[in-house]
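Worked example 3 (structure in, sequence out).
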């Protein structure tokens, strides 16, 4: 179908999206036309058979043809609709031959992705244009839902269970990922971006990993928002689930066990990789998951923290 992008639906960013939209638009117009038709007949009957002086209502008898039509008509229609819906569902549920597998893990409150090479990233995933991808979705804590409107797909991320969805990106650019299951305080911040790049760019990225041109503090700031540090740590002193980063660097913090720790390179390094090792007094122990940043990335985060006086 040509240009089915329309006012009701977001952009179609996967090869399967058009099929879903066609079915949706079919049901939509079918419902709209029938609603208009039924209302028209209703209004006609209200006027035509209204109460008039001197006209007595006659009881209506049995009409076999009408009974059969309004019983079997809808049955046939519903069966056909089920068939169409099931076809589209199956088409979207079965991954294409040779699909690249990506692990998607939901966690309070971020999405972690793992590429086939073992490389991981948080809240940002790169995918090659035109290559089928199969997502293996799971959760590390509570119920989340992996929702990609551009691909018209959504699947729950359930603790202790693997779900999957599969699609083929058909356009360069960004696709938004949402969490579509209420999962706690920062549920609405549990967003990720899929960046669709050319296959050449993607292969290069897989080989070289994340790089950054520019000062380390700028990279640190990027990591802060990309890796979802910002979901729990403010940089302006405001209260969030984790300690604010404003003025944190160099400070002496009191831990939950009463000991004190100076916020330096070693402390930050440890707190990113093993968040449970030292817990600041007044914060809960279970909230922060471990992050898989390499030393270069951690150095960049530290450089950024130093700027937050
Ligand atoms: Cu995760 Cu809502």
């Amino acid at each position: 179908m040509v240009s089915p992008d329309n006012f009701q639906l977001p952009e179609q960013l996967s090869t399967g999206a058009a099929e879903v939209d066609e079915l949706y638009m079919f049901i939509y117009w079918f419902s709209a036309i029938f609603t208009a038709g039924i209302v028209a007949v209703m209004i006609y009957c209200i006027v035509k058979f209204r109460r008039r002086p001197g006209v007595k209502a006659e009881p209506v008898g049995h009409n076999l043809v009408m009974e059969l039509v309004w019983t079997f008509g809808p049955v046939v229609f519903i069966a056909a609709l089920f068939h169409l819906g099931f076809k589209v569902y199956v088409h979207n549920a079965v991954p294409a031959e040779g699909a690249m597998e990506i692990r998607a893990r939901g966690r309070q409150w971020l999405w972690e992705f793992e590429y086939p090479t073992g490389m991981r990233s948080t809240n940002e995933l790169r995918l090659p244009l035109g290559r089928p991808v199969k997502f293996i979705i799971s959760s590390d804590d509570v119920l989340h839902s992996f929702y990609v409107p551009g691909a018209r797909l959504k699947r729950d991320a359930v603790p202790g269970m693997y779900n999957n969805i599969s699609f083929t990106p058909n356009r360069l650019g960004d696709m938004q990922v949402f969490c579509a299951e209420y999962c706690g305080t920062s549920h609405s911040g549990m967003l990720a971006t899929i960046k669709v790049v050319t296959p050449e760019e993607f292969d290069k990225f897989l080989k070289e990993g994340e790089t950054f041109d520019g000062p380390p503090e700028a990279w640190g700031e990027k990591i802060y928002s990309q890796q979802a540090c910002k979901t729990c740590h403010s940089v302006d002193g405001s209260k969030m689930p984790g300690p604010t980063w404003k003025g944190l660097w160099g400070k002496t913090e009191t831990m939950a066990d009463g000991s004190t720790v100076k916020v330096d390179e070693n402390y930050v390094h440890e707190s990113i990789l093993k968040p449970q090792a030292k817990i600041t007094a007044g914060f809960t122990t279970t909230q922060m998951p471990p992050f898989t940043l390499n030393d270069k990335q951690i150095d960049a985060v530290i450089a950024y923290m130093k700027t937050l006086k």
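Notes: The mean pLDDT is 87. Residues 66 and 196 are 55 Å apart (CA to CA).
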